[in-house]
Amino acid sequence: MYYLRLLIVVGWLALLSIDALAGESSKSEEKPKMPLSWGVRMDVGGVFPTNDFVRGGHFDLPRQTWEYSEEREVHDFSDFIIQMNAGVRPDRWQARAYRNPYYGVGVAFPRFHDERLGKPVSFFGTYGARIAHITNWLKLNYEINFGYSTNWNHYDRFKNPDNVAVGWKHNAHVALFPYLKFVIPGGFDLKTGVSITHFSNGATTMPNRGLNNYAVSVALSYNLNDSENMVRRDTSLRAPHVPLRLEHDVTLTRSFRQIYYDGRGTDLSTQFVQYRHPVFAASYAPMLRCSYRYRCGLSLDFMYDESVGARADYVLDEADGKMYERVWLGNKRDRFNLGLSAKNELIMYGFSFFLNIGYDIMHGDDSLTRMYEVVGVKIQPRGPLYASVGVRAAYFSKAQYIAWSLGYDFKGKPLRRADRQ
Fold first, then answer.
1. What is the Cα gyration radius of the chain?
2. Which helix (H) or strand (E) segment is 306 a member of?
3. Does residue 395 register a pLDDT over 80?
4. How much is the pLDDT for 305?
5. Phi, psi of 229, deg, nearest 5
6. What is the reported pLDDT for 370?
7. Which residues contact 374 (CB under 8 A, 6 or more apart)?
8. Largest CB tally within 10 Å, which of 122, 222, 234, 321?
9. Does domain 32-233 have CATH number 1.10.10.10?
10. What is the mean pLDDT of residues 399-416?
11. Domain covering 244-416 in this structure, CATH number
12. Cβ neighbours of residue 53 under 8 Å, at least 6 residues apart?
């Protein structure tokens, strides 16, 4: 529930951000109305065989090995989605600069047709925009979904031991949907394309192999106040000149993570010991604001990770004569990391995507490389405060933890006038 509350806070900040961008002018009858739409989508596809569970594996506990069977393979994936979207008013420069962006909310009902995964439900936010205008009735667009899913039948050592893909009933949901949009008379749009969907908990609870799905997608939406062609014809809409300036971001992060424990030489029956280690992080990043679309800079990243060097075993409690799993923490000095990363931020309408690629100067975790990556979404509604959610990972695939962060942006003075972007 901790992460659900944080997700609600981030969503609330996102709504404030959109409200701040839209302003109060929407109340005026003289202004064009905000485009609105609602629709449904159906995805039908499969699951990439990226872990032993999906490949039909069954873990033989006595022999500590995986056995595979075609009957246990996870092949099928389908998804039914309902969503509502809102666009940018056609008299705003963002409508033209960001190619008719839209944002919204939705609910999805993914199905894997395997009782070991359950019947999850996902609540997500949406951002989309046009890639190319082919004709007045045909466009190439993209859509990104990011949200929270629950009701998973997750890993259980005794009841569901093979499901190493999903270790917790709460998981993040990320999807990419590039599509062709066919404009149908009467306010309808038919959308068809391919979608890629990912579910995981970001190493909050182990195991966390994740599920990666692909599908052919078909959607039908009904539009109110559609203004896309109006925006394309209005050449007076121009993006503003943005002065080149230095901005200073200070970010604080709190999270939790679990790790895989080495069972060799112990009495452990599993490497998935249910023990969460706290993680605290802080960063300072001087960022060069290059345009209304892009910022870049260097980030000094400090991290405290209690899991470094931890070990576990199955021990006898002499007080009651029963066996329990016990975790011993590692050396305190090894828990502190200090890294330097190159930070890139792509600014969209109402939020931004960021990617850090860094190297640990001070590094105590021998199980991971010094190289690390942080990818996520930043929301900055009004003023200098912002919230972000991302994933810190190694090897561009091995998640360490979900980074729930709050930050403050100190605006510097312009260095010079930027050219029009």
1. 24
2. none
3. yes
4. 96
5. -70, -30
6. 95
7. 301, 341, 354, 355, 356, 358, 390, 391, 392, 393, 403
8. 122
9. no
10. 90
11. 2.40.160.20
12. 74, 116, 162, 163, 164, 165, 209
> In DSSP terms, which residues pair with 125 in a beta bridge?
105, 146
Domain range summary for the chain, segments of one domain joined by +? 32-233, 244-416
Among residues 257, 285, 198, the alpha carbon closest in space to that of 392 is found at: 257
Residue type, 208: N
CB atoms within 10 A of CB 157: 12
- For 137, the token pair is 């009735």
Q: What is the pLDDT of residue 421?
A: 44
Task: Give yes or no for residue 82 having a pLDDT over 90.
Answer: yes
Kindly state the tokens that stand for 289: 């604001």
Q: Tell me the pLDDT tens digit for each residue of 233-288.
A: 666 778 888 889 999 999 999 999 999 888 778 888 788 888 999 999 999 999 99
pLDDT of residue 26: 43
Report whether pLDDT(18) > 90. Answer: no
Task: Give CA–CA dist 234/254, Å, rounded.
Answer: 46
Q: What is the mean pLDDT of residues 103-112?
A: 96
Q: Do domains 32-233 and 244-416 have the same CATH topology?
A: yes
Planar angle of CA 251, 254, 256, nearest 5 degrees: 145
